[in-house]
Write a structure and sequence with these properties.
mainly alpha, single chain, 201 residues
């Protein structure tokens, strides 16, 4: 709540207190959550090296306890951090990993968050069609789950030049996560059209 209210010192202090408490309790899953929260505050205050360290620690803990949702969430955090440091390739890599996990476990919010991140990285690299396509997919999911982030994506898509960008690039030019793949029988857990499992219904 403090982070959302832009009270970053209080948010950082709360995250540190939570981290200490969960450490005493040896609650690794909650420690990972607290580290992600701390990392987001560090991102917002411009302390990118500390943010990277917090998110990487969170990712390691989530992997240790097998928390797939936490892994997707943390990879999206790392993707957003890479975007803040203008590393588009790394941002796409983190978000693409998050997208694969989120689709596998059926987590729509993290799917949309990953698609939004991939879309923004494409736009920054001058790939308007690819970026627009990803943002439109993210928007559809945000709207379906009534997420406030839908408004943010809508505003981005209204920017001059994006409305005219094709959401259906020529064959072979689609983003990798949007291309057709073999039948599901040979790709367990992924729909043939690469849409999230709960988007295909």
């Amino acid at each position: 709540m403090q982070r959302q209210a832009d009270d970053y010192p209080a948010a950082a202090a709360s995250s540190q207190q939570a981290l200490s408490l969960f450490g005493d309790l040896r609650d690794l899953r909650s420690q990972a959550y607290a580290l992600n929260e701390l990392g987001m505050v560090q991102q917002l205050t411009g302390d990118h090296p500390s943010a990277a360290a917090s998110h990487q620690q969170a990712l390691a803990l989530n992997r240790d306890v097998g928390n797939r949702h936490g892994q997707a969430e943390t990879l999206n955090c790392l993707g957003e951090l890479a975007s803040r440091t203008a590393d588009g390739r790394q941002a796409r890599d983190h978000h693409t990993q998050a997208l694969a996990i989120a689709r596998e476990i059926g987590t729509p919010l993290e799917q949309a968050r990953a698609l939004e991140g991939i879309g923004h990285s494409h736009l920054r690299d001058g790939h308007a069609s690819e970026g627009t396509a990803c943002l439109q997919q993210a928007l559809a999911i945000y709207q379906r789950i009534a997420a406030p982030a839908a408004r943010r994506v809508q505003e981005t898509l209204r920017q001059p030049g994006l409305s005219a960008a094709s959401a259906h690039p020529a064959p072979g030019q689609e983003p990798a996560h949007q291309r057709r793949i073999p039948p599901r029988s040979s790709q367990p857990g992924i729909k043939q059209d690469q849409l999230p499992a709960d988007e295909a219904t």
